[in-house]
Amino acid sequence: MSTERINYEISPIGPRLIALVIDLAVVVILAVIFTFLGQIDWYVLQQMLSLDIEYSEVLLPVFVFMIIFSLLVYFILVPSFTNGQTVGKMILGLNVVYDDNSSTKRKFGTHFKRLFFMRGGTKVVKVVDKRPEGL
C-alpha cells in the first residue's frame, strides 16, 4: 500500500489575489445568469398574476440579491465539494487546508467561517511535492 506524502507551502498573496479575481468573475457570471433566468420567470409570473410592475423596476434589487446568493453558494458549496478549491484556486493550483494540513472537503461550516471571518483555522497552500513515501 502506497502512502502519499504531500508537502505544502503557504501561498503568497499574489496568486491568492489572482484566484480571487477569477472567482469574483465567476460569481458575477453566475449572478447574470440567475438574473436572466429570473427575468424569464418574472414574465411568466406577470402573465399569470396580471402584475403591473415591469421587471426593469425590480432589476437592481434582484441583481443584488443574485450577487449575494451566488457569493454564498459559490464560496461555501464549491470548496466543500472540491477539496477546498474554487475555480480560481484550481487554475492556480491552490488548496484550502486546516492548519494541520488536513482536508476541508465536505466541511460546509469551515467554508462558511472562511467567508465571513476570513480564516476559520485554515490556510491557503500550494502543493510543492507530491510523491509516494520512500522515494
Description of the structure:
By secondary structure, the protein is α+β, with helices and mostly antiparallel strands. The protein has one domain. 59% of the residues lie in helices and 17% in strands. The chain is built from four helices and three strands; from the N terminus they run βαααβαβ. The chain has helices at 13-49, 55-81, 87-92, 108-117; strands spanning 4-10, 94-98, 122-132. A three-stranded antiparallel β-sheet has the order 1-3-2. The longest helix is centred in the first third of the chain and has 37 residues, at 13-49. The two termini are 14 Å apart. The model is unreliable at 1-5 (pLDDT under 50).
Which key features would you list for this structure?
135 residues; alpha+beta; three-stranded antiparallel beta sheet; elongated; disordered N terminus
For the biggest β-sheet, the strand order reads: 1-3-2
Helix-strand topology string: EHHHEHE
Number of discrete domains = 1
Mean pLDDT: 78
Q: How many beta strands in the DSSP annotation?
A: 3
Helix content: 55-70%
Shape annotation: elongated
Radius of gyration: 20 Å
> Which band does the percent of strand residues land in?
15-25%
The major β-sheet equals: 3 strands, antiparallel
Distance between the termini: 14 Å
Which structural class is indicated by helix and strand composition? alpha+beta
Low-confidence stretches: 1-5
Note the quaternary state here: single chain
Number of helices, where a helix is a run of at least 4 consecutive DSSP H or I residues:
4
